[in-house]
Amino acid sequence: MQTATPAQRRASRPRADALRNRERIVTAAREMFVEFGPDVPFDEIARRAGVGNATVYRNFPDRDTLVTEVVCWVLDRTAEEAERALAECADAFEALERFAHAAADERISALCPMVSSTFDESHPDLQAAGERIERLIEKIMDRAKAAGQLRPDVGVGDLTIAVAQLSRPPAGTACFSADRFMHRHLQLFLDGLRAPARSELPGTAVTMEDLRRS
């Protein structure tokens, strides 16, 4: 598992021990952001990561920097899941299903709202990671449509909204204890995406541009 950012986000390659510490910090921060929100104290993140406070601040001098790293890391991991699904699944709809469940497990819905609440969404690292995953989702969906397995009246935004909403735990329910509901209900949604469609959807297919304008 790699938690370092892609090559374009690294000026030089840190030492192996520094990379391991950075990985521990990002992993711990992601877990705690999902569980408790973006205001988790750095000393709590350091404790869970098994490193000192100074190590956290040396890698991430402020909260915005850490949030950016965590969100980009999760987006990169989700993009890698999309690439694996495309490469390993001969069945186009199976690739779509595999990706959707993997994306839900990454808890993007719990992390992305922190971005707009803390800094400019036009951050170049975030934009690059977002554009990469958007292209891959479109590729997965286009492949399923071309195979006649995915109804033609849905867009990337439809899938994105559904995964985000279904991976967000119900009020009063602990995030990780709701997994059995999340994957069950996500599969119900995915079954509704299969072609031929059994009903006509109101409105038009939702694009990512629609989501950005909303």
TrEMBL record:
Residues 19-78 form the HTH tetR-type domain. The keyword DNA-binding applies. InterPro entries: Homeodomain-like_sf, HTH-type_TetR-like_transc_reg, HTH_TetR, Tet_transcr_reg_TetR-rel_C_sf, TetR_SbtR-like_C. Keywords: DNA-binding, Transcription, Transcription regulation. The keyword Calcium does not apply. Residues 41-60 bind DNA. This is Helix-turn-helix domain-containing protein. It comes from Streptomyces glomeratus.
